[in-house]
Design brief:
This protein is an alpha/beta fold. A 7-stranded mixed β-sheet has the order 1-7-6-2-5-4-3, covered by helices on one side. It contains 3 helices and 7 strands, in the order βαβαββαβββ.
């Protein structure tokens, strides 16, 4: 397991970091986001989509629970689990009906369903250091070993 702490000092830097990660993703990758409100999770997902070559404009899935982004390559399913609490709630969202094996999942508020996530998930934790600076910790396999500042 590789663990990297990276600091970004603008939304553009956060997007650029996520774009690098997006270019390394494979079908079946599940990215679990941990962190509070306003720390950059949706901004990060914009970069992931860019790295995956997706043309869509990413928006927060807060009210829809999931936003889908499709292109010529991998599809991205962007979930918001803020209002989901455990396995029963997760089942009711239709989460298990989405095709993880042929796409990428990015899950905001993963702490609410962490017991239901696979151990091989890519874990990304966001911490606000100031109004502009974020500490982003990436835990995953060797694909992410060379991302440091």
């Amino acid at each position: 397991m590789v663990k990297q702490k990276i600091f970004t000092s603008s939304p553009e830097e956060t997007i650029a970091l996520a774009e690098k990660i997006g270019k390394r993703l494979h079908p079946g990758d599940l990215i679990a986001y941990f962190g509070g409100l306003g720390v950059g999770k949706t901004t990060f997902t914009r970069g992931l989509a860019k790295g995956l070559g997706l043309p869509d404009v990413v928006s927060s899935p807060t009210f829809a629970i999931v936003q889908e982004y499709h292109g010529d390559g991998l599809s991205l399913y962007h979930f918001d689990m803020y209002r989901v609490d455990g396995a029963m709630d997760l089942e009711s969202t239709g989460f298990y009906d989405y095709p993880l094996e042929e796409s990428v999942f990015a899950i905001e508020w993963a702490e609410n369903i962490v017991s239901q996530l696979p151990p091989e998930m890519i874990r990304i934790t966001f911490e606000r250091c100031s109004d502009t600076v974020r500490e982003i910790t990436i835990e995953g396999d060797e694909r992410f070993a060379d991302l440091g500042n």
